[in-house]
User: Fold this.
Amino acid sequence: MILSMVIFGTISFFVRYLTLPSAEIALYRSVIAVFPIGIFLLLTGRKKRNDATGNAVKKKEILLLVCSGAALGINWILLFEAYRYTTVSTATLCYYIAPVIVTAISALLFHEKSTKLQWACFLMSAIGFLFLTGFSDLQKDGRGIVFGVSAAIFYALVVLLNKGMSDMTGLRKTFWQLISASVILLPYVAFSEGFHLPLTDFYGWAALLTLGLLHTGVAYCLYFTAIADLKGHQIAILSYIDPLVAVLISVLVLSEGMTFLQVIGGGLILGFSLLNGWISSKK
Assistant:
């Protein structure tokens, strides 16, 4: 679990090496990742399955898989765009308001019970977001902040759609979502900005393959294997290694500074999002 979170946390470093449009990066990432995840499912699957990667997908789940796959692809596009227009730390911390968005939407639309402490976590995360963005250079970072928050909304949508597919394992959902995202992104890329892969240099190819194979294929296999043996509160805590690593890379490796008030804002977002996750796992 720790290894998968560290891998996820270094995504931004490799995206920075890619000059391809964000939609094209998302397309290649999903296509490349299908193969290692598919092979892993074949090797670890039980006998007498209805298909190569598990039991046959139910008809009612197909629409959810298509929608969640599209949301996953859009989520990646928006996050990669956020990296281009603001610092990695700001983009990542904006992105990590997704858990509290899920809690709020679940309470409002699906009438899931939320405690007063969970609503307090939502409020404090929102205050942290105001600290983070209110003390940013909006003329410089504004577009990146919008992309980061939009990515968080689409990630929350993926989580909510996944709730309707309770019969499928997490890795199987991801496998079919990646296929769905690939099918949807392919015509979009073809008819929008076109394909630029032949123009990519060696370092771009290396970054792209690493992003698809390691950061998606291997990392997802590690993650979904790990959570089967962990308790909910352990998962909630360890999952925040990802944004911490991303922030450290932003500040220490990419030399992107943060003001003291932005650090406070980021701490509020991560701290109260973590507390919210802990409460949800206990429930």
